[in-house]
Design goal:
Radius of gyration: 23 Å
Largest sheet: 8 strands, antiparallel, barrel
Shape: elongated
Strand order of the largest sheet: 1-2-3-4-5-6-7-8
Structural class: mainly beta
Helix content: 10-25%
Distance between the termini: 38 Å
Order of helices and strands: HEEEEEHEEE
Length: about 210
């Protein structure tokens, strides 16, 4: 009788552990489309609309706390640049179509509810960014920077989103929206930082 009770208790415990593993995945991998409204730090062109995509990897310590790696890339975008004669950055005046891309690689903590059908989350991510826009700007127009512009920058993203489980086991989820404030710090004479908007949507796989 005692052995039977022990066996029943063991089965119940194993079932509970399996359910917990299903509800709170240890690993998550996302594939996404990404849109960035990138605000370049010069006064002669409007913001850039960039379309791209990438992926995210998450390791969850608990069903509420994890650590995330986020990797996004945006294809080359062409923007019209015009500086009038007499401006400090281009004394003789200049005008050209400038191409620029953007890549970000960010890491940091994520909090949220990683169980159930509806799974909201928020995060603060730190890392780096790469873009050729300021280098292309200097090469094409002869723009005068106070120091040579760098293609690499510190980057920060803060925001969050929501996942919706789309199968009964919860192993696949749809991410309708992840919205972030994106900050980069490409050095140039116009500004010490760039404040941008980022939107992502995609599919999440839970393991």
């Amino acid at each position: 009788m005692k052995l039977r009770s022990v066996l029943i208790a063991g089965v119940v415990m194993l079932t509970g552990l399996a359910a917990m593993a299903q509800d709170a995945p240890k690993f998550e991998a996302a594939i996404d489309y990404s849109y960035a409204r990138y605000t370049a730090s010069h006064n002669f062109a409007s913001s850039y609309s960039l379309n791209g995509g990438g992926g995210e990897l998450d390791y969850n310590f608990t069903k509420y706390l994890g650590i995330k790696g986020d990797f996004q890339g945006y294809g080359s975008n062409t923007q019209r640049f015009t500086a009038p004669a007499g401006s400090a950055v281009c004394p003789l005046g200049c005008s050209a179509n400038i191409q620029g891309n953007l890549f970000t690689y960010l890491f940091g903590p994520q909090i949220g509810i990683r169980t159930g059908k509806i799974r909201p989350f928020g995060h603060v991510l730190l890392g780096g960014a790469h873009s050729n826009v300021y280098g292309n700007l200097q090469k094409t127009t002869g723009l005068v920077f106070s120091k040579a512009p760098s293609g690499n920058s510190f980057a920060l993203a803060a925001g969050g989103g929501i996942d919706i489980a789309i199968n009964h086991t919860g192993t696949i989820a749809f991410r309708p929206a992840e919205i972030d404030y994106l900050y980069t710090r490409f050095n140039n004479s116009a500004s010490s930082g760039q404040n941008s908007f980022q939107y992502k949507a995609g599919v999440v796989f839970n393991f």
